[in-house]
Amino acid sequence: MGMKRFGVILLCCGLAATGLLAQVSAKKPKRPKKPVRTGAVTAEMERSLLRALDDIFRMDFESADKMTRKAVELNPEHPYGYLGMSVVTLMRYLYETEQTDQPLIKPFEDQVEAAVRAAGKWLDRHPKDPEALMAMGAAYGMSSRLKCTRHDWLDAYFQGRKAIRFVRKAAKLDPDLYDAHIGIGMYDYYTDVYSHLVKVLAKLLFGGNRLKGIEHLKIAAEKGKFSSTAAKLILVEIYTEDRFGSRDTAQAVRIMAQLRRTYPESPMLHSAHIISLYENGDYRAVVQGSKEYLDRVRSGGYRAIDKAKGHVMLGTGLWALGEKEKALESFRKASAVQFNDRLSRWAVWGLIRSGHIMDELGMRQEALKSYSRASHEPDHWKLKAKALAGARRPFKKMSPGPIPPLAD
Model-level pTM? Predict the structure, then answer.
């Protein structure tokens, strides 16, 4: 479900983008009783933050990191720069290294703590500054995001609850903060969904409402200055994965096609587009898109680690078309991709997918070897259970199932 797929990669990064950049550009005339913003974000700082956000979606992380560090230098007391640094580090971990470079976790946690400290000190002086409240909420949201990735569900929930308290207060103080709707929408949608999927949380989650959450996300997607792209990606996740009546794969494909036009060189958005096509049943387009993705890896346009994801996407598309032998060849190629002398996340998933399709082809002994190799890799991504399940019982399903790892 959401916590296991691409879209939820931005589950709390949307909050982060909101906190990072919430309405830092030209301000409208103030209404009566509207809180006075501090005006701490200069035009130069604003440009740096806007450039950083754009760089993240283009996956130019070196430039994004440079821009957020510049923002810190321009105003070391303000939380936005520190928060921006944490966004860049988290996205590097999730996308540049495909959750494979574990040493990135500690600097990310340190950057989140720095953002919380800066926001707290700022709010001591300016307790009704909506931008600072957004920054505090975003910092807790970022912490929650990583805990979701690591399956620390209770901690993720409590961090998310802290986040929404600050975000809702910011939105109440300033109704023009349309970017706040992304945080409110995610909280409403995911707390409702998680109460069904993560039973240990069921008694704790009272306020979520899936449909209201989707409406808030639509507002952020349409009107948000800096959260629009993140909100669209979360809607894509919902439209491709929702089990409760909101699935709309054709709309997901339309959104991703538009985002691809905006960021045509981003492997992150390219793969999300391919996954949306798969969920919509456009399997030939998946095969074609995956081959184009792999061509970009070979030409150096995408990183070497992306080869594993490209071959898993290609293999799944081929499998859906009934070309199982070709699919197995693609999965095997995926399973050979390494990062720092260890298999990448998508490579381990390639081993498991190889086992699945070998079971389908009646190659049980070969499948057991593939599951065994996968189960002996470090279990950073909670894939060991999938490998052990395949070893216990042959994979037998009517369809290949979703493309990404951990999706059921």
Answer: 0.85
